[in-house]
Amino acid sequence: MSASGTFTSGRTRSRVEAELRVVGNSLEIRDPRDKLMLAQWAYADMMPIQPLKPGRPVKRLRLVCHNDPEARLLIDDPAMIALLQKANRALRPPRRPLPPWARKVAAGLGALLILGALLECLVAAAGPLARSLPPSWERTVDRRLADHLIGFLGGACNGPGGQAALDTLGQRFDRDAARNLPVRLRAVKMSAINAFAIPGGTIVVTSGLLDDVETADQLAAAIAHQLAHLDLNHTAEHIIHRTGLGMMALAAFDTVLPFSTAALENLQSLSYSRQEEAEAYVLGEALLQKADIPVQSMGSYFRLQELRERTRGRPTDFQAAHPVPRKRQEQQGIQPFSRPAASDRDWSLLRNICS
User: Fold this and answer.
1) HSE-up of 355 (CA within 13 Å, CB side)?
2) CA nearest neighbour of 125 among 259, 237, 272
3) Taking the model in full, what pTM does it have?
4) Which of 221, 223, 313, 335 has a CA positioned 20 to 30 A from the CA of residue 297?
């Protein structure tokens, strides 16, 4: 490739309309009259005399060479300029800097991408992380979230003697089932048939669930099932999966953070897989057996849920969140010893706690 340019010699200061020719990785500069070699500049040794203006195309390229700093070369041939810029990055104009607002937007998007990547990593590690959380974390989350959940659902039911009856039922699991964390049972006035578990041992039952169960043993079965999910870390894993770093931060800050509302809503809509349900069903039966509560009540309550579904044409909230395989609901063998989950008096108090 050849072109023309204006060459100023550093020795004689003479100015010549030179002929430019590409040879290998260099540029030959010759006098067109006698073809005399005036200079040979390597691409890598060239640099612009003055800084190039950002974002503007170069129409005239004024060059100097490291090996001949007194000489000057002016090129206005577009094809030659493009070739030299391709060979030497220093001959390209810098990009136009982003305006301040664009830099802020770019920084914000970058931060969001980093946060998204961190959350994806956290979601992928939700299972192992939930299994490695110390009991102190669960107690902290329970202390800071349970009362907010109860308030979010409309407040606790305080019927005369009802909370004491719930405490007595909770003590059956504390004393006899030998769980790592104490059980705290609360009731809220809510028509949905459901129960909510909070890492740390709080189980919130709705008035709809209290009206739905037929016996105190069935209520204990629903509670044992929720406790099993807690002991198997299913609840913590699902909460971490949905709220990401938010649930971790809850254990670090005393104040209720903005994410807490989402965490509360997530607690109401947690839905477990069939494998998780099968695991929780087996452990729930074991908790009932250790508490000397009839194990048959577990299958009894889930069969009652199926009956409710056929009657109403749709599953209850509890049944939708806990899709227990039907084969798990078969009657168990006779327990060597068991006693009702609550006395007749306590059961009456429980039924009326939200009245």
Assistant:
1) 10
2) 237
3) 0.62
4) 313
How many angstroms separate the CA atoms of 71 and 12, rounded?
9
**What CA–CA distance (Å, rounded) separates 3 from 75?**
9
Question: What element of type H or E holds 277?
Answer: helix 274-290
User: Residues 255-303: pLDDT tens digits?
Assistant: 545 545 555 566 666 778 888 888 999 999 999 988 899 999 998 888 8
**What is d(CA 339, CA 19) in angstroms, rounded to the nearest whole number?**
108
For 113, residues 6+ apart whose C-beta sits below 8 A from its C-beta are none
Residues of the chain with CATH 2.30.29.30: 2-91
Q: Could you say which architecture CATH assigns to the domain 2-91?
A: Roll (2.30)
Per-residue model confidence as pLDDT tens digits over 300-312: 888 888 888 888 8
Question: Residues near 40 by Cβ (< 8 Å), separated by ≥ 6?
Answer: 23, 26, 27, 28, 29
Tokens 């664009």, located at residue:
102
Strand order in 195-198's β-sheet?
184-188, 202-206, 195-198
Spatial CA neighbour of 305 closest among 289, 317, 287, 293: 317
Strand, coil or helix: what is 63?
strand
